[in-house]
Write the structure tokens for this entry.
Amino acid sequence: QVQLVESGGGLVQAGGSLRLSCAASGSIFSVNVMGWYRQPPGKQRELVATITSGGNTNYADSVKGRFTISRDNAKNTVYLQMNSLKPEDTAVYYCNARISRVLNIDYYWGQGTQVTVSS
């Protein structure tokens, strides 16, 4: 069994900051790419940012310069520091990780955490 547990969502005013965390646990051999996705109300899920185990990052254009993804490989944890938040950042944010186990490699999702930015 593998679990991704997210924390850190909430309600914030425009211009404010939030930090999301996601920890992977269970029978894990290694954690490869980790990332954050979001699903705004009434829209499809979209990529926010990803980070490899070596620290290479990739961001959606809409969050470049405002969000920073990082990870702690020893803790199998990924973070998303969100600054200068805008109302259009309002969404359910999901953690995703490509995890290697003894017999397989697969992608796993967290349960999601709500981020609401008020204007």
Q: What stands out?
A: The radius of gyration is 14 Å. The first strand starts at residue 2 and ends at 7. DSSP finds no helices and eleven strands in the chain. The CA atoms of residues 48 and 61 lie 9 Å apart.
